[in-house]
Amino acid sequence: LARDRPAYDLTTPRPGPGSSRLADRVVRVLLMVAMICLTSWGSGAFAASATATVGVTIKVESSASIDFPEGLDFLIEVPANKSPRGATIKPVRIPFTVTGSSLVQVQAAAEAYLQIADGFVAGRALGPDGGMQQLGYNIIVQFPVPSQNYSGLPGRGGFGTLPPKPNLASLPGNAPAPTPALTADAASKPQIYGTLHIVAEHNWTASGAYANPGKYRGRITVTLTTDNQ
Amino acid sequence: MAMKNAQSIAAAPARIGSREVNVSKFLHQAGRVLATAGLVGCTISAGHAQQITASEYQTNINVQVLPFAMLDFIDSPLLALTIPPAVSTIPAKGVRFRVTGNASATMTAEPSAFIYIEGERFMGRADLNGESVGYKLELRFPAVGILGSPPQYAALPGFTQGATVPPLSVDLTMSAGQRDGVLHMEASHQWTEDGGLPRPGVYVGNVTLTLTADY
After folding, report:
1. Which of A55, A78, A150, B193 has the maximal Cβ count within 10 Å?
2. Could you tell me the CA-to-CA distances from B138 to A107, B67, B98, B155, B204 in Å, in that order?
3. What is the three-class DSSP state of B134?
4. Quick check: pTM over 0.95?
């Protein structure tokens, strides 16, 4: 008899007279349910937990920024003791820094242009007399350069005189257009550097006459673009 | 004699009491009881059965329904942003969900991975080819308040890795057993490990929502 007694008989009353195997099965099923419930949730303070997952996608697009620590406006100083070779006009150096996450392109353009006597189209700087005097200039872009203070200007910066280098560009000279774009991988370093050189000659005027001594003000525009995926 | 069958456990989960059950019918429903118990959460105890007729037996069954809560996403369970500039899914683009239950429900949200950003401290981490971008979370539950149960907000602790704080508890019985919530994300291209700009591409992460039904 003990061998036939189901396990639940240890904790529940034995079936009374009149019950049947069917009733035993009922009680067994009910106890199984209770055991499952108690196993799942414990018997004290119940706390049923469930989790769900939310996906996160952040699409990062290419971005870049350019900084001109010394500004973009410039003054070309034409000295009084000009020489016939025009070598005494000191080039103006404008450094810049680029930060980006991909390939970036830099190109520069003059705000205004002037066709000078020898046929080239140069940037136009206005003289100290309220703009009556004009001086042509060229823009030399070096990008990238090794350091922030890099100042190596190849040659004198005349139109069409630059050596063919991938990090060197100037105004085309045959049209009022910007320099060709120079490309660098901004993601390769936290910052990459570039330099703009503004160069002029004494006779880069509309008439070909030497420009009057004084300071000539000019302004350029630099365009930075990124490769967006 | 009451003749409630096993399906009433799920249909009227909040009732606690004692019922008499027709044994022969109950046997046919036993499978459903087992299946439903996993969802609803109940404890059942029974006395011995008494034979009424040749084919009918009677027993007393106590059904105690335990607290439960379940979560359904109302729309896609995906938080998505495009940066730069820094941007947030607030107010309209978060992941909305609905919590249904018979008890007090508590919600938290936790990123699957974390990143430490100088000045911002710990935040969630999305990855792409070994690079990472950080994101912040804001959990709103309930998202819309009712009388006596205003909206609640939680965010990542920041000072440590972990789920949103505080845990947001809502008594679901105050609102017919149902409240909505929303999970929001904020991201910036400046939230990288070294402070540099992240490379272009799609950065991926996961957030685990944990729902607990309490007494």
Report:
1. A78
2. 42, 26, 16, 5, 18
3. strand
4. no
